[in-house]
UniProtKB/TrEMBL annotation:
Residues 67-152 form the Cytochrome c domain. GO terms for molecular function: electron transfer activity; heme binding; metal ion binding. It comes from the Bacteria. Keywords: Heme, Iron, Metal-binding. This is Quinol:cytochrome C oxidoreductase. The keyword Signal does not apply. It comes from Paracoccus jeotgali.
Amino acid sequence: MRRAVLILMLLAGCKQDMAQMPRLDPVSSALGFPHDAAALLPPEGTVARHADLSPVPDALPDQIPLAMLERGRERYDVFCAPCHSPTGDGDGMIVRRGFPPPPSYHDPGLIRAPDRHFYDVITNGYGVMFSYASRVPPADRWAIIAYIRALQLSQRTPVALADAGLAEGEE
Ligand code: HEC
């Protein structure tokens, strides 16, 4: 019994010390630390744990796989359609609420513009449009560009030339 009391007292003492220790929350500010922050910056060149390190192409493939187009459409609808509109004419929902309207993808200048121009606009932003580099990884940028090319084609192709199978598809 006495031993138990002693152990209890010792444990209580420990608890007290721990509770009074100075500590820093993971992302709190900490004057005097590097960058005055409790969290250290990752060393330069650090790669995220699940990063995809496969080389990214620097052009569209000659034959665009259907999966790439589908991925492009999905990403386009998330990141671009709010301003550029689902058809690419620049009349998206954000624009209708007052954001400056972007040019239509169906303008001759953007039909002629090289694929790389679209890639650079997504990466660096353009005028009032901000950069999507942190939200759209390189492979997705190409997928989106493939889909924008499809959108452009869709507005310029006479119905008679559209492939019958595609025209009768679910969408
Ligand atoms: C918040 C609204 C907004 C979103 C979202 C947006 N854009 Fe834009 N984009 C604009 C505006 C506005 C311009 C015109 C900018 C200017 O001329 O100052 C523009 C211009 C462009 C241009 C034309 C550049 C040129 O040569 O005239 C391209 C290409 C483009 N955007 C692609 C994209 C793609 C691809 C995405 C999706 C990854 C995207 N934008 C998302 C607003 C947006």
